[in-house]
């Protein structure tokens, strides 16, 4: 059996939504959703939370996650990247516990819409395609080749005017990162130290299945999506 680690990244600081990672979402702390999804998936030998915050540690442990060590102050500020945090976790597991993992899945704490089946599909792709990473993506609803900008004079113009008369169906679809998780091959991640590379695979999901949560309006939209998906 492959050794697989789930890493849920949840620092204490949050400027736009205070205490965002443990704020109640449909009645329970939002971080409990990815913890439960990771545990229910049965994919991971360990489900851990990387945090610098004792309250987040306590809540995470109450919902079944491990918090075997606290995140360093260096990787708890606004400038630390997700890759920095993952690297610290993997290196600490090896140094403190002699544990090495073949795969790791970094899951964001504000991913209440994430489904365990998607994690399983991502792992399958990672293994069968020998990819560096797999992560969910969402298709742009309109062709980005027809994107508009406002010029210096305040008038609207196309970024790629050569696509003005091209039919939408003839333009290559484009996607954006859904911002839920990254399933990683640990060996290649330790070398390249990137969440996605030239050997990464996108797993397409609908825009109903994910929601960026950066403000209170986003939060309400995410709760509405959750109720639509899980009303049963």
From TrEMBL:
GO terms for molecular function: N-acylneuraminate cytidylyltransferase activity. InterPro entries: CMP-NeuNAc_synthase, Cytidylyl_trans, Nucleotide-diphossugar_trans, PseF. The keyword Transferase applies. It is an enzyme of class 2 (transferase). Its EC number is 2.7.7.-. Keywords: Nucleotidyltransferase, Transferase. The keyword Cytoplasm does not apply. This is Pseudaminic acid CMP-transferase.
């Amino acid at each position: 059996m492959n050794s697989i680690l789930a890493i849920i990244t949840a620092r204490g600081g949050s400027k736009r939504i205070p205490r965002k990672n443990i704020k109640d979402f449909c009645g329970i702390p939002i971080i409990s959703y990815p913890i439960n999804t990771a545990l229910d998936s049965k994919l991971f030998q360990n489900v851990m939370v990387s945090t610098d915050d004792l309250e987040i540690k306590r809540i995470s442990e109450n919902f079944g996650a491990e918090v075997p060590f606290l995140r360093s102050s260096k990787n708890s500020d606004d400038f630390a990247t997700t890759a920095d945090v993952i690297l610290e976790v993997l290196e600490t597991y090896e140094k403190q516990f002699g544990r090495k993992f073949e795969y790791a899945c970094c899951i964001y704490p504000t991913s209440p819409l994430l489904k365990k089946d998607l994690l399983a599909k991502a792992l399958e792709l990672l293994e069968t395609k020998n990819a560096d990473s797999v992560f969910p993506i969402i298709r742009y609803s309109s062709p980005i080749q027809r994107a508009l900008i406002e010029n210096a004079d305040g008038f609207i113009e196309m970024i790629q005017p050569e696509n003005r008369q091209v039919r939408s169906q003839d333009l290559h679809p484009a996607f954006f990162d859904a911002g839920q998780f990254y399933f990683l091959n640990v060996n290649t991640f330790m070398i390249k130290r990137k969440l996605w590379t030239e050997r990464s695979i996108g797993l397409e999901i609908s825009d109903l299945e994910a929601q960026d949560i950066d403000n209170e309006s986003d939060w309400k939209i995410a709760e509405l999506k959750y109720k639509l998906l899980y009303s049963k």
